[in-house]
Amino acid sequence: MKPQKIVVIGLNDQALELNEELQKIVDSTICFCGGVRHYNLVNKILPLNAQWYNITVPLSGILSVMKESHNDWVVFASGDPLFFGMANTLIREFPEADVQVYPTFNSLQVLAHRLKINYGEYKTVTLTGRPWEEFDKALIHNEAKLAVLTDRKKTPGVIAQRMVDAGISYYKMFVGECMGGEKERVTNWNLDEVVFETFEVPNCLFLEQTESKPVQKGIDEKQLTTLPGRPNMITKMPIRMATLAYLNLHNKKVFWDIGACSGSVSIDAKLNYPHLEVVSFEKRPECEEIIQSNIQKFRAPGITLRMGDFAELDKTDLPLPDVAFLGGYGGRMDEILDQTNNVLATNGIIGFNSVSIKSADSFINWVNSHSYTLLTNTLLTVDDHNPIRILVAQKMN
After folding, report:
1. Which alpha helices (DSSP H) does 234-372 contain, by range?
2. Cα–Cα distance measured from residue 140 to residue 137, given in angstroms and rounded to the nearest whole number
3. Where is the Tetrapyrrole methylase domain (predicted)?
4. Which part of the chain has CATH 3.40.1010.10?
5. Considering the entire predicted model, what is its pTM?
6. Which of 14, 207, 210, 360 is the Cys-Cys partner for 171 at CB 3.0 to 4.6 Å?
């Protein structure tokens, strides 16, 4: 039996005119799929017996239909379907199929042509149905030029707000709307301006630095805003960096900082391991402004801040951690550790910096009474400060 054939045709937003080869393929096919926008562009050139299926998220629906049909398909997609597009999914999901791709210019290419810029110099990031991880990494790595694919939630305004909130306002934004279509529009903005704007969908954008500002990794505690009158209530930089190294964050995904105080641990975790999703918890209301100020000062995008008592907060909407740091526990260490254990992934890590023998013993006793292995028990002294014990334990089941 011949393999299933899937032809993927890339479209722009103009009325479709197929060449002779593609029109023959369309005329001889029954099963078609694409977005609603694509159907509005192609419905007049489909055969009378055409069966059309809308592509919607999650893609598992349309993929199941395609797999069960065993028919040949024509799939309409946007631009170049191999540029973060549908063709990549089809090649992965249908390894035995004959997948043929007929691209056109993607939206970022069209926008670059209108702006007359060398788009090969730009780091490309897609936020279309994707998390913020790669975008945050690009900002932290101080990429001077970024090309960004957006979606209906991660709009130019939302992207600009995220950057401004993190103190990253030194970019110009060039937005392209409905590239190649009748509603095409190209505009440029300062980030504080675009925050309040709405744009036609689909859109894409370029970001260009107006100045270069490499981020600082390993922040001296004297540079951080702290609680008034309590300058020593902060994890010292050498202790902080050693603790983060012991937590083995390079292969972790979600980091919970419980009792964030000034946000120093969260900020250095994000700047040194930009792939991490970082969630900071702090119950003292006066710390909220302090943490936000430090996030902006040191330009750490993508830190989620939850204010309130950790033990009482609703955490069901948060990504579950595979690593946590106990920065504060308000005299309820066992309760906080029990709650953390309930959501921590198997083989997950919990770290703690002890300033007293009593707190170290309490942490170790909890570890020994649960299914954890103590990985690190290191005593460090910085300058004339009291010794700090770095404790790290791993969940075994």
Report:
1. 237-246, 264-272, 286-298, 333-343, 357-369
2. 5
3. 70-194
4. 5-104
5. 0.89
6. 207
